[in-house]
Design a protein that fits this description.
The protein is an alpha+beta fold and 216 residues long. It has a domain at 17-88 and 134-194: NADH Oxidase, CATH 3.40.109. The chain is 44% helix and 12% strand. The protein has helices at 6-15, 30-41, 60-68, 75-78, 93-107, 115-126, 134-155, 168-174, 209-212; strands at 52-57, 81-88, 159-160, 182-191. Helix 2 packs antiparallel against helix 7 (134-155). The protein binds flavin mononucleotide (FMN). Flavin mononucleotide (FMN) is lined by residues 17-18, 20, 73, 161-165, 186, 204. Flavin mononucleotide binds at residues 17-18, 20, 73, 161-165, 186, 204.
Length: 216
């Protein structure tokens, strides 16, 4: 693997900004989009359980409906691909078995040999104290995927804007998730910045390194 230089990485991270205005005429091509879907899929999660789905909205009608319940933020309709991060509301034995079976298949292992690991995950997330706050746990996993997605996009020159300014309950309704055991937590339009988005030139506001990084 050829590593990105540290300077190039910082350049990409400086280039990324929460895009306020997308150029609605510019679409992400298929190959570039396929790469970003892989970035979503390759995101790490606790135990590797992937308690998520990523709904990619390109349909204009659905985008417009979602914009209306996203504080009317124009990024939702003007972006190329609107990514909606969805989590599994409750962790259950079926999902854990699904993961164990997938591990056995991919790694050519015997699922039976992972019985102890499976029980441990069930004891932690399905029946243990963490089961009471499990959707918070799942949301944290989804936010890791969100961060991964935005950085990956920046590295290949695609703009994004993380969006918490959405009504997740209305999103659930529009996307047909209500009552399904899955729910929306956050969204992220992706595409290409408009030439006249003045925020692209705004300086980054960050606290001083000394206030954020502690060396021991
Ligand atoms: C979880 C999350 C939710 C956000 N929600 C919105 C939003 O709804 N609308 C928006 O314009 N920006 C939103 N932002 C963008 C932040 O305001 C922005 O990332 C922050 O000011 C830092 O600026 P930068 O990303 O341009 O460096 C959100 C950022 C994060 C991480």
């Amino acid at each position: 693997m050829e590593n990105l230089s540290p300077a190039k990485l910082i350049e990409s991270l400086e280039w990324r900004y929460a895009t306020k205005k997308f150029d609605a005429s510019k679409k992400i091509d298929e190959k570039t989009w396929a790469c970003l879907e892989q970035a979503l899929i390759l995101s790490p999660s606790s135990y590797g359980l992937q308690p998520w789905k990523f709904i990619i909205v390109q349909n204009t009608e659905i985008k417009n409906k979602l914009k209306a319940v996203s504080w009317n933020q124009a990024q939702v309709s003007d972006c190329s691909h609107h990514v909606v991060f969805v989590i599994k509301e409750k962790m259950d034995e079926e999902h854990i078995a699904y993961f164990i079976n997938q591990t056995a298949k991919v790694r050519n292992q015997d699922a039976q040999s992972m019985e102890g690991y499976k029980k441990m995950m069930i004891g932690d997330l399905v029946t243990g104290p963490r089961s009471h706050v499990i959707s918070e746990w799942a949301a944290r996993q989804a936010y890791i995927a969100l961060g991964n997605f935005m950085t990956a996009a920046a590295v290949i020159g695609v703009d994004t804007c993380p969006l918490e300014g959405i009504d997740p309950v209305k999103y659930d309704e529009i996307l047909g998730l209500t009552g399904s055991g899955w729910k929306v937590v956050v969204a992220c339009p992706a595409g290409y910045r408009a030439d006249d988005d003045k925020y692209s030139a705004a300086k980054k506001v960050r606290f001083d390194t000394k206030d954020l990084i502690i060396h021991k």
